[in-house]
Sequence to fold (87 residues):
Amino acid sequence: RCPFCRQPRSLNDQEKIEKMLMKRIEVNDPVAMCKMGKQRYREGDYSTAFEWYTKAAGLGDTGAHYLLSCLFLKGEGVEKDKKKSIY
Fold:
């Protein structure tokens, strides 16, 4: 749903959003990488989410650092590791 008008988004809108997100990723936008990781996480693809979070964290995204620690704490997509979850 559109957060402004509350109308359902069409498939075409979702395709546009995905295309714009990929353009931002191509220019190394850490926020876009983190967003892609969140999408993959919601789909249940934890290992791909881990890869996107790692790339975003490497570029300085603090939200991605937090989400990486959550993956390590829960052991989703990676081996459970309390030391890395705190780091």
